[in-house]
Amino acid sequence: MYLADRSAPASEGAKTAPGRGSVRAPAVASTVLALGAVSMITDISSEMVTAVLPLYLIAGLGLSPLGFGALDGVYNGVSALVQLTGGHLADRVRNHKLIAGIGYGLSALCKPLLLLAHSLGPISVILTLERTGKGLRTAPRDALISLSTPPELQGRAFGVHRAMDTTGALLGPLAAFLILSVTVDGYDAVFGVSACVAVLGVVVLMLFVPSGGAPAPTPAKAAAKATATTGTAAAGAANATAVPDADRPAPVRLRDALGLLRLPRLRNLAVCAVLLGLTTVSDAFVYLLLQRRTGIGDQWFPLLPLGTAAVFLLLAVPAGALADRIGRRTVFLTGHALLLTGYGLLLWAPAWPALPFLVLALHGMFYAATDGVLPAAVAATVPGELRATGMALVGTGQALARFGCSLAFGGAWTLWGTGPALAAAAAGLLCCAAVAGFVLRPAAPQEARTDSNRTDPKRVRPPR
Amino acid sequence: MTLSNSRRLLVLAVAVLLLGGLAAALVLRSASRDDKPSAGGPTVAAGAVTLTRPGSLAFLNGGQGPHRGAVASVPADAPESGRTASELTCQRFYAAAGTGVCLRSTPGALAQDNKALIVDSELRTLRSFPLAGTPSRARVSPSGRFAAWTVFVSGESYGAAFFSTRTAIVDTRTGKLEANLEEFAIDMDGREHRAQDVNFWGVTFSKDDDTFYATVSTGGETHLVKGSISGRSVKTLAKNVECPSLSPDETRIAYKKRVRAGASLWREHVMDLGTLREHALAEKRSVDDQAAWLDDRTLAYGLPTDGAADSTDLWTVPADGSGTPRLLAPGAASPARLG
């Protein structure tokens, strides 16, 4: 990540951060807390369904494993592609809250529909719609978080959001199993309660999240806006002229979205996200490898993701705050180094009793150091008008890369077996991390000039 | 929406009350369902279910009411008569020669608690094995000595395309467990096949207490394999054969065949093991189950109940491709002919 807040002079808007290294804002913006609450509530809702869905489909409806496997693949590919649409739409209509709200609403609508679907076809359609909702809301939500937070506190803000989000993901299954244990075949109750919870999430969004995107003429907004744009100009955009006048928002067009990729720093970030995504083995494989490697009892297998999530939850905020202080690039790369260490342990460590805990801890730390830090870094490079589009570009690139990695890793696993496949992934990750470390190095003043020379300001500036 | 803070909190409180009330009502309705057998459904009475009683049919009772999910039995020649329900509840069940296997998933504190129970003829638990995932298929060998099960393993929610099964075979006498058939050697068309994307499911046993048949998927295709427990090996026989079920005379297998590539649409077929020739059965609906032979001429299988989301009915169809499907038992799953 670029050390936007270090390589640039402290911006006028960032009154709370007089000097670098002593970034201590009193609290996280209320918008971030509100969005965190919305995400937490929504995640409770969706993870309730996720937790019981396999049993419902396989035991309740008698679906075969293969049928369920096909379904799983379908609904995971959807949200990555919809993300771009959601991001661009949000910037275009200048109302991030509206698009995010539609996304949350669509997912909420899908939950009661699950009660009516009895076979694979309709269930696939409903789950695909649910994922569409998730895809629509992701980029505008992250844009809202970043637009409501001064540049030097982005890491912490995203850390808070991700921690709240993960809390919801952990509470969801608890709620679902609680309902199942007090009811008789209470799948309908789980889906119904999940729908109620999802609607509550939408209500909280409508009540407590201010509409973002189009800069409103309120003083607080204007200040936040100024902060964001100054930070952007100093940090990522080619030069100050790349930032349009905040008072005269120009319509955002599809070409501007593509023009974003001409921003060298955003392009570098996207390239690194894709490269690292291509070498990040999907969680499911990590857990399978861990079980094969350590012979963890079958009864513990479903608990492995909870270990990762717990560590992620505990460290998301500290890691985000650390990224704001010592630099997002350092923390982001350290996160990947920790993941690499995890791969190394899986490959070569002797059979310590602590091995599963170590690997899960490293896996959770990897998420804490990267999941919120990446959007924080993206925020520092994209003008406010195109924030959601920028978030979506990097997010989609990363998601598609991870999907590709999953396919490639599956192939390598088939061809070479587990050990060599993981070794190859680790070698790939090492190379990609080295490239990322080089590409994302802090811009020297001279280099920044070169960058600006290379970039045609007209291209990145939204047309007046 | 410009509201004062107190207004917002008021709206939030009202929303919480309304949604909370609705959620509570849903849970309470679902919790009280226990007492209410659905009108017109089969009558079910608690009683002793014995796996050695000749001429009876065992299945999991799926009708609404207090015995939902329980192992139940009816006379095989009068399946519509009142059901006798045991205390044992399972998600998947099978029994032969006085041995039963019950795959059970109960809500745990943090995750599902999945177990395979080996039960004796009085349904008393003899052994219990933890499972890594959601119960899917269960079988017992005709002698009652071996039991097999398949579970679906899913590691996480946001992963990319991923599915994995675990299939285990246990010697119910010694307790010796083959926890993962993927460790068996695979002979594919005469050559040793080594691949890590191998998934096994749907075991069916022969009378000799060594031979078994199962589905193996690898490289995007499903294969019928014939295996040896003692030899820890399997050999491929045919493609596009899932969830085999060996006939009592061991000359044929029934299985589901994917009728359109990539689609989740299966038709039940029967293959002659001598000639590997197959024929479709009269059932035209998509069957996603491991069928069970009631005798050498008749197959039973589950299909989703029309209009009910979480229930299946048992149907039968002649094994020679003639006739028409017939409803065997509404609100039932996991059929096994006893005795």
From TrEMBL, chain A:
Region of interest (Disordered), ranges: 1-22
Keyword Transmembrane: yes
Keywords: Membrane, Transmembrane, Transmembrane helix
Span of domain Major facilitator superfamily (MFS) profile: 31-445
Database matches in SUPFAM superfamilies: MFS general substrate transporter
Localization in the cell: Cell membrane
Annotated TM spans: 53-71, 166-184, 190-209, 269-290, 302-323, 330-349, 355-378, 399-416, 422-440
Superkingdom of the organism of origin: Bacteria
Short name of any one Pfam family annotated for the protein: MFS_1
Membrane topology note: Multi-pass membrane protein
InterPro entries according to UniProt: MFS, MFS_dom, MFS_trans_sf, Sugar_transporter_CS
Family matches, as PANTHER family: C-METHYLTRANSFERASE, MAJOR FACILITATOR SUPERFAMILY TRANSPORTER
Protein's UniProt name: MFS transporter
Automatic annotation (TrEMBL), chain B:
InterPro entries: 6-blade_b-propeller_TolB-like (IPR011042)
Annotated segments matching region Disordered: 320-339
Name the UniProt record assigns to this protein: TolB-like translocation protein signal peptide
Protein source organism: Streptomyces spororaveus
